[in-house]
UniProtKB/TrEMBL annotation:
Gene symbol of the encoding locus: mcsB
Description of activity control: Appears to be allosterically activated by the binding of pArg-containing polypeptides to the pArg-binding pocket localized in the C-terminal domain of McsB.
Residues forming coiled coils: none
Residue ranges of the motif RDXXRA motif of the pArg binding pocket involved in allosteric regulation: 332-337
Species the sequence originates in: Marinicrinis sediminis
Protein name: Protein-arginine kinase
Family matches, as CDD domains: bacterial_phosphagen_kinase
Lineage of origin: Bacteria, Bacillati, Bacillota, Bacilli, Bacillales
Family statement: Belongs to the ATP:guanido phosphotransferase family.
Amino acid sequence: MDQALSEWMKGGGPESDIVISSRIRLARNVQSYPFPMLATNHQSEEVMNLAKKVADDEEFQEVASFEWLPLSEMNDLQRRVFVEKHLISPNLANDSRNGAVILSDNEAISIMVNEEDHLRIQCLYPGLQIKEAWALANQMDDLFEAQMNYAFDEQRGFLTSCPTNVGTGLRASVMLHLPALVLTQQINRILSAVNQVGLAVRGIYGEGTEALGNLFQVSNQITLGQSEEEIMDNLHSVVKQIIEHERAARTKLMSESKNRIMDRVQRSYGILAHAHIIDSKEASQRLSDLRLGIDLALIQGVAACSYNELMVMTQPGFLQQYSGTQLSPEERDMRRAQMIRERIGSTPG
């Protein structure tokens, strides 16, 4: 709870200068039980017991060391931290009566129970590793299926609460840092092209959220009528093209506007290293500039993983959890600035 950087985030992974993470999420439901939104408390508790039985199984624990965490035993602040670390969804955090999360010790595997569906199996890898995340998610899925009867239709595939997940129940997504495409004003054209090939672009925390700090989440929209391999191949191919466009934009910036880019990243570094008050939106943008400066070798002595860590540490929930107390908005802005100074620079005397 007090560590912003999950263990899985410490490895760079392929294309890690642009791709922050790859995620596979599988939606599954138990046959003969209503979807969570229609289930009674008793039915939801029964699903919880079924999931916990699987999680306690010796074969399950051989994959990794897991902990069973009922959401009802967490306070609002703790649930918010889990959302900021991408371990649970805002939906589960807001309706946690009979919900739980089964979490691996390195936080690469997070299984939500009684969210929109009975099970949401999520696996996270650093960099562009969609296939690796799929292999792990598929392994966890098999362990659940061995002890549960899934709601499945021969024609429609896996049955889910939301029709957009029916079929494979697979949502594959990649988190990308695209500052150069934003600075060169190419981002709207690129994202429009992405939408036309059946992919969705969302903000840092998924559907309906803002692309803070030039972070964009690209995922499949189609789950019915395509195999898991086809979905992942399509996403991987499009993401590789986005990476090429971002790299080309960075090269263009360095050849045509190096002094302006150097000024931008150094200004942001200076503000981050010395500011005493900074809100979350400005911090996200300045940290994006910092990460671009690190990747372009314009800033030395700051590790790229510091960016990943600070993107979580500077969120409101984590700031308060780390401080051990509720903070007012101004106090959060002051604590955020202090935390950034401690990580990347010294406080001016």
